């Protein structure tokens, strides 16, 4: 990778040997970029309040990480500080960096600079970004194109959440929060869907659609934008594109159309048609019609890049998904434990629907940990209606991140519990994760399905429960 752009933008000396400090290094995107910079020869350090497998992995690569985040770990020799979108100006590490006069950049800025050195592929949308990014990266890697990629989830089959490839392609998950994706310069873009989310930043759906329209207009004129045209908000945003636009859906009116053939035993078989002509028949190991849509988007992107249809078919057939996306953590004593990142009502609904299709006669337990007080408040009624395919629901306390004092006083988990119970759902409110494990251990029976859901640390329940069994 050429370093000239980074040198000019951040006034830094050549990348190798450069000291970069990440505030919030344990985040999925931050850890991915940190991994790439380590591979480029940077001296990487950072801080995060929580220890995780991601921070442990980075330490194994030589990164020095502390959990105090009090400013004491930052050296005056640090050349550049990278901050995640969740870091505020009152963070002691950031205040120390400002005091020392160290260059501070956002994660999305450095991601955009890295992308400019290659042919960028950016996957955006309220839902499905991680799986679609993982599919595209898997197809490109197994086809021998060796892309660089930064994905918002661990994908074990291709080496994790990041890889520094020798090819000229850079695949990145493009997050809309803080308009971060506008720092990217893709030749190829995807918009999977657009819904209300991150309302602590955007205020309303109109501003969200406008931001996605800005993203669409940022794609180079010789490139491609792939959009779900059964999402009206996405159609509106796509009108701002200056490049070729191709659509996908399960309707034959789209450029890329999927026809689901079967979904038994966890295998999804489907035919793909391109502009009304038969393209190929594919299969997926991961359940849910929403993943057929993700596969259609990935197929459109990789076909534009130049991957042949047989290579796409082979890669999709072997694709086992990203961690925390319908991930089977274990099957013990006839009880299947699954972990999923779903933290928006639509994601909960489609994931539970996929579980019901896969296990039509089984009792499904859903353990849900709300993510953010503000998201819970804005989408309260939608959350309450999203658990229809679960037999039993256990609600944990809200996982706080980026929430101010007003949000923490305006919303609590009890309100979500009452709203959900009033909608006819069998729900328990058990605030602490450790207590949830105890209740599950004494209550579940052979044949039951236990699904943990949320963007916080609810995954611990899944692993602790399997360990107890």
TrEMBL record:
Reactions performed catalytically: UDP-N-acetyl-alpha-D-muramate + L-alanine + ATP = UDP-N-acetyl-alpha-D-muramoyl-L-alanine + ADP + phosphate + H(+)
UniProt keyword Ligase present: yes
GO MF terms, alphabetically ordered: ATP binding; UDP-N-acetylmuramate-L-alanine ligase activity
Enzyme class: ligase
Keyword Disulfide bond: no
Domain Mur ligase central: 123-302
Any one annotated GO CC term: cytoplasm
Recorded superkingdom: Bacteria
Compartment(s) of residence: Cytoplasm
Residue span, Mur ligase C-terminal domain: 324-456
UniProt xrefs under InterPro entries: Mur-like_cat_sf, Mur_ligase_C, Mur_ligase_C_dom_sf, Mur_ligase_cen, Mur_ligase_N, MurCDEF_pg_biosynth, UDP-N-AcMur_Ala_ligase_MurC
Family the entry assigns: Belongs to the MurCDEF family.
Name by which UniProt lists this protein: UDP-N-acetylmuramate--L-alanine ligase
Gene that encodes it: murC
């Amino acid at each position: 990778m050429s370093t000239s752009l980074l040198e000019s933008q951040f006034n830094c000396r050549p990348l190798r040997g450069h000291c970069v400090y990440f505030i919030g290094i344990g985040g999925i995107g931050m850890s991915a970029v940190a991994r790439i910079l380590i591979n480029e020869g940077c001296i990487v350090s950072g801080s995060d309040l929580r220890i995780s497998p991601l921070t442990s992995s980075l330490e194994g690569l030589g990164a020095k990480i502390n959990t105090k985040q009090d400013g004491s770990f930052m050296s005056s020799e640090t050349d550049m500080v990278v901050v995640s979108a969740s870091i505020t100006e009152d963070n002691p590490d950031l205040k120390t960096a400002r005091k020392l006069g160290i260059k501070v950049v956002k994660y999305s800025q450095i991601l955009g600079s890295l992308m400019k050195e290659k042919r960028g592929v950016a996957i955006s949308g309220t839902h499905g970004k991680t799986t679609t990014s993982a599919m595209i990266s898997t197809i490109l890697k197994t086809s021998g194109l060796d892309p660089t990629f930064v994905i918002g989830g661990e994908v074990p089959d291709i080496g994790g959440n990041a890889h520094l490839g020798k090819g000229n392609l850079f695949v990145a998950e493009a997050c809309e929060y803080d308009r971060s994706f506008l720092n990217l310069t893709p030749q190829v873009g995807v918009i999977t869907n657009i819904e209300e989310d991150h309302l602590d930043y955007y205020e309303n759906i109109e501003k969200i659609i406008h931001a996605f329209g800005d993203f669409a207009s940022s794609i180079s004129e010789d490139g491609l934008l792939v959009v779900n045209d059964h999402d009206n908000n996405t159609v509106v945003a796509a009108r701002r594109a200056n490049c070729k636009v191709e659509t996908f859906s399960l309707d034959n009116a789209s450029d890329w159309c999927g026809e689901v053939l079967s979904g038994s035993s966890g295998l999804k078989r489907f035919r793909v048609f391109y502009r009304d002509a038969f393209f190929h028949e594919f299969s997926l190991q991961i359940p849910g019609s929403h993943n057929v849509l993700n596969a259609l988007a990935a197929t459109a992107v990789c076909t534009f890049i130049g991957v042949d249809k047989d290579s796409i078919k082979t890669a999709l057939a072997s694709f086992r998904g990203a961690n925390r996306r319908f991930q089977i953590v274990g099957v013990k004593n006839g009880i299947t434990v699954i972990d999923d990142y779903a933290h928006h009502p639509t994601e909960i609904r489609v994931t539970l629907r996929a579980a019901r299709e896969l296990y039509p006669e089984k009792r499904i337990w859903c353990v849900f940990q709300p993510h953010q007080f503000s998201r819970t408040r804005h989408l309260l009624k939608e959350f309450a209606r999203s658990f229809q395919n679960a037999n039993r629901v256990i609600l944990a306390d809200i996982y706080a991140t980026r929430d101010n004092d007003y949000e923490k006083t305006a919303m609590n988990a009890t309100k979500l519990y009452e709203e959900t119970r009033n909608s006819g759902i069998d729900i328990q409110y058990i605030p602490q994760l450790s207590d949830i494990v105890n209740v599950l251990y004494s209550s579940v029976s052979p044949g039951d399905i236990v699904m943990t859901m949320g963007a916080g640390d609810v995954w611990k329940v899944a692993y602790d429960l399997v360990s107890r069994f």
